[in-house]
Amino acid sequence: MLEKLVIGTRGSQLALWQTNWVKARIEHLHPGIEVEIEIISTKGDRVLDVSLPKLGEQGKGLFTKELEDAIFEGRVHLAVHSLKDLPTELPDGLHICAICEREDVRDALVARARIKSFDELPDRARVGTSSLRRQSQLRRARPDLVLEPIRGNVDTRLRKLDEGQFDAIVLAAAGLRRLGYSKRITEHLSETLVLPAVGQGALAIETRTDDDETGEIIRALEHQPTRFACTAERAFLKGLGGGCLVPIAAHARVEDDHLTIKGLVASTDGLEMVEGEQRGASRDAESIGVKLAEQLLDRGAGAILARG
After folding, report:
1. Model's pTM, two decimal places?
2. Domain boundaries 1-101+202-222, corresponding CATH code
3. At CB < 8 A and 24+ separation, what contacts does 301-306 make?
């Protein structure tokens, strides 16, 4: 058994919270192991003046490549990621060793004090979000809104809101909850309004496939229902061949041994949207996700993806 584990992580407040949570779980389950954290800067942390969609193909692995390099080089044993940041195809020799139990999967509206809900946003309210997925769905519901890109960590985005640069911003509820900002949430946005990102709210632990000692330790953090749900979502995304250039959303739920996944592909202006749903046994999570992708492609999603 290993005596020491080194975890690689980005240096943002949220990334450090997530990594310290994993560190505490490892130390609880394996009291004899010393756990260290190494902060690693990624390209996504350094390039803050360009919106993610504009990076295009360069955006693949934007928040993960340097962490993966550190695993290959042996500087760290594992890396902790927000699963939604991980590309659907990992480098040969690496795998997702464990997916931890999911937090709240929904998006959240954080608005200035006078605004009490999404429906109360005034005409032409300025809403900050850099996510094409959020933008397209919000535009469908409220074409009047002025949607503007916003980058930076959670604290930076909240500060920009408080300074009056926006009337509201949209963030993942999981990140706000993890950082103790639950009281800042004006409203949790329903999935019928904004379907979440693939993997949203879940933490992934990435290791080398041949590192059996680390794998034996980390697998204790696996949450099987979350694994099934996220496997279906990622198979759906991979089946579409999608990334940051076209709005794609999905959320899978697991109840007992059954899995239900909803997904959509949309145009960036929100005027075109193809939606669908698939169900099946949770053990068939991957094939269910692939079937949903095929269903949406048959309904016209391919044309939207091609334009993206």
Report:
1. 0.93
2. 3.40.190.10
3. 301/240, 301/265, 301/274, 304/246, 304/265, 304/266, 304/267, 304/272, 304/274, 305/240, 305/241, 305/242, 305/246, 305/265
